[in-house]
Amino acid sequence: MSTPHQTTSPRNPGSGDIDAGRAFADKPHPGLVLSALLLLGALWGSAFPLIKIAAPAFGPVGTTHVRLAVAAVVLAVIAAARRDVWRGVHQRFGAFVLLAALNVAVPLTLVATAIVGLNASMAAILNATTPMFTILVAAAWLGQRITWRRVLGVAAGVFGVVILLGGAPLPPSTGTALAAGASLAAALSYALGGTYARRAFPDTAPMTLALGQQLAAAALLIPVTVAATWAAPPRGPMTAAAIAAVAVLGVGATAGGYLLYFWIIRHAGPVAASTVTFLVPIAGVGLGVGWLGEPLTAALVLGLLVIGTGVGLLTFDTPRTIRTPADPPAVPRPSQQSVIPPQSGSSLPSSGSRIRKRS
């Protein structure tokens, strides 16, 4: 008979990754977590200039589809021997299709479309508005309370977008406006996808979630890619640089990025993982300016700072929460505990058991 402190019971494949005691028991050194965050910011930030290189050859939809297919293959190889992962993907593949549409296929296609009409730096900054849309979606869908800090954060984000677009070194055309709208719509889609994932997959293992999402997205985009390529064939030449860019997108920014992101959540918590929002636009702007030679304007820097301030107000807002049945019960002081032994493995007897014992 095991004691309450032993951990020899078999692990539940469906809920093992939300076991807080197990997740934080092997908490790595803070420096390792910080290094993982910096690497993740660089991976996801590098996606914007890489898309800029690949999109002319593959098209916006084709670039998204190829990177997702590459990521799906990489994750499938990693999980080849994990029967529990494949079983979880098979059992809920329909739900993964909706998640893939909201969280991967639609937003990544919109981002690729936006980068063609804008530039990598602006698209990376506009993508940082995702937490602002998430606040609104979570309030409407999950009933989360909107605090004054969140209102200020959303307002700062809107103001930053206005500054960014008003001083953009691009012609004020309909195409520019549509590209900016596509980038903001991608941020909204990410917000919807993240909120849906929180509701539909609260106990799903990270590897199962990543693999199911990528497989569903790759399958979902097959007819879309065929139709888009037939209607508007890519105009750019198929170069070695474009092929290398989309391969790095799939292996690094998509497969590696998601695995690293879930690793940070598992070992450092979701709050630490959410701070990558600050790093992605910085990496995207730095690579866009330094690698692609995009102009560094005052509006770009000011818009980045204002949107970053808004994201900071949203990220570090910790409103008071109401205790739910999932929260651990408060353990009374020794002087208040009953001397009656626990029943059926429970840590403390219920009030009903105390009454029956006394009678």
TrEMBL record:
<feature type="transmembrane region" description="Helical">
    <location>
        <begin position="271"/>
        <end position="292"/>
    </location>
</feature>
<feature type="transmembrane region" description="Helical">
    <location>
        <begin position="151"/>
        <end position="170"/>
    </location>
</feature>
<feature type="region of interest" description="Disordered">
    <location>
        <begin position="1"/>
        <end position="20"/>
    </location>
</feature>
<dbReference type="InterPro" id="IPR037185">
    <property type="entry name" value="EmrE-like"/>
</dbReference>
<dbReference type="GO" id="GO:0016020">
    <property type="term" value="C:membrane"/>
</dbReference>
<feature type="region of interest" description="Disordered">
    <location>
        <begin position="324"/>
        <end position="359"/>
    </location>
</feature>
<feature type="transmembrane region" description="Helical">
    <location>
        <begin position="176"/>
        <end position="197"/>
    </location>
</feature>
<dbReference type="InterPro" id="IPR050638">
    <property type="entry name" value="AA-Vitamin_Transporters"/>
</dbReference>
<keyword id="KW-0812">Transmembrane</keyword>
<dbReference type="InterPro" id="IPR000620">
    <property type="entry name" value="EamA_dom"/>
</dbReference>
<feature type="transmembrane region" description="Helical">
    <location>
        <begin position="32"/>
        <end position="51"/>
    </location>
</feature>
<feature type="compositionally biased region" description="Low complexity">
    <location>
        <begin position="341"/>
        <end position="353"/>
    </location>
</feature>
<feature type="domain" description="EamA">
    <location>
        <begin position="183"/>
        <end position="315"/>
    </location>
</feature>
<keyword id="KW-0472">Membrane</keyword>
<protein>
    <submittedName>
        <fullName>Multidrug DMT transporter permease</fullName>
    </submittedName>
</protein>
<feature type="transmembrane region" description="Helical">
    <location>
        <begin position="57"/>
        <end position="81"/>
    </location>
</feature>
<comment type="similarity">
    <text>Belongs to the EamA transporter family.</text>
</comment>
<keyword id="KW-1133">Transmembrane helix</keyword>
<feature type="domain" description="EamA">
    <location>
        <begin position="36"/>
        <end position="165"/>
    </location>
</feature>
<dbReference type="Pfam" id="PF00892">
    <property type="entry name" value="EamA"/>
</dbReference>
<feature type="compositionally biased region" description="Polar residues">
    <location>
        <begin position="1"/>
        <end position="12"/>
    </location>
</feature>
<feature type="transmembrane region" description="Helical">
    <location>
        <begin position="209"/>
        <end position="232"/>
    </location>
</feature>
<feature type="transmembrane region" description="Helical">
    <location>
        <begin position="93"/>
        <end position="116"/>
    </location>
</feature>
<feature type="transmembrane region" description="Helical">
    <location>
        <begin position="298"/>
        <end position="316"/>
    </location>
</feature>
<feature type="transmembrane region" description="Helical">
    <location>
        <begin position="238"/>
        <end position="264"/>
    </location>
</feature>
<feature type="transmembrane region" description="Helical">
    <location>
        <begin position="122"/>
        <end position="142"/>
    </location>
</feature>
